[in-house]
Amino acid sequence: MATIIPAAFVSDVIDGAIVILKESRSGIEAAPLEREFADDATAPASHGIVSAALTGLCDQRAVLEQIAGLQAVHSLQDALSNALARRELSLQYQPIVDRSQKVIGMEALMRWNSTEYGQIPPAQFIPMAERSGAIICLGAWALEESCKQLEKWAGNAKSAAWTLSVNVSAHQFNHWSFVGELVRLVEQYGIAPGRLILEVTESVFLNTEGNRLQGSFQRICDAGVGIAVDDFGTGFSSMGYLRNLSVSRIKIDKIFIDEVVKSKKDQGIVEAIIMLARALEVGVVAEGVETAEQLTYLKSVGCSAFQGFYFGRPSDIAQFL
Ligand SMILES: [Ca+2]
């Protein structure tokens, strides 16, 4: 007996491809829709129904659980695609401090408070937005909000010299309109040189062709916008891009800071990154600093800027102004 399941229950977008669930020898597997219905004019997208051959041979409960799981992801993805229009997104700010623990800047962090699902952690919705492509719109929104914030800060003596770091995904960075839009925002909001910093992970260097990357970096640099390498040391830490591209800051990933007071290995890595940053004349920020001992150690090896719960959690900007 075949079970008929509405397409919305069994189709989902995984890595940009629509998939359906189909029975296989090992149970139920996801298969790309295009492949399954390549020659079929009556593809499920057109009549809205997928007939899945779920016979007594497979475990119906496991199938229903998989379907429920996919349905939940699907609904959350739908909600995410409406989050901007529903004004459910906001930015929180986490301070970055110097050696005397004076605030020198902030990192803007995206938060999603869904009317249907409540607070969704960034670790859940950011990768989802990356997969669906929604990150392009979300990232553009965060960038413009950050520029508005910098414009406000410029008029306040306390915040006028602060920098604002904005996370930019590789997907967003590589979008054809990104650099042009960035330059437009810098002009529109009168962002002073050095105030805005884009935080990119090393994946940007992996997925972009060298000449194009160099061109983008140069235009960003010419617009007075800095580039920080985020989570340094956890990805593809090629020295080539540090040599060829105008990077203004390196952020040491939290995983090297967590145990740094005790771990000789972490100390070796952290000290090497600080020496590298110094030799290249780029700034260095230690991320994830949570204790006085970590701060004392990091200062003793020459780190110049710090970020983490020890100095402040991500909060509404009103907390800091
Ligand atoms: Ca970051």
UniProtKB/TrEMBL annotation:
List the PROSITE patterns hit by this protein, alphabetically: EAL (PS50883)
EC number(s): the record gives 3.1.4.52
Q: What keywords appear on the UniProt entry?
A: Hydrolase
| SUPFAM superfamilies membership | EAL domain-like
Q: Recall the GO molecular function terms of this protein's record.
A: cyclic-guanylate-specific phosphodiesterase activity
Q: What class of enzyme is it?
A: hydrolase
- Ranges for the EAL domain? 73-321
SMART domains, per this entry? EAL
Protein name stated in the entry? Oxygen sensor protein DosP
Specify the species: Achromobacter veterisilvae
Q: What high-level taxonomic lineage is stated for the organism?
A: Bacteria, Pseudomonadati, Pseudomonadota, Betaproteobacteria, Burkholderiales
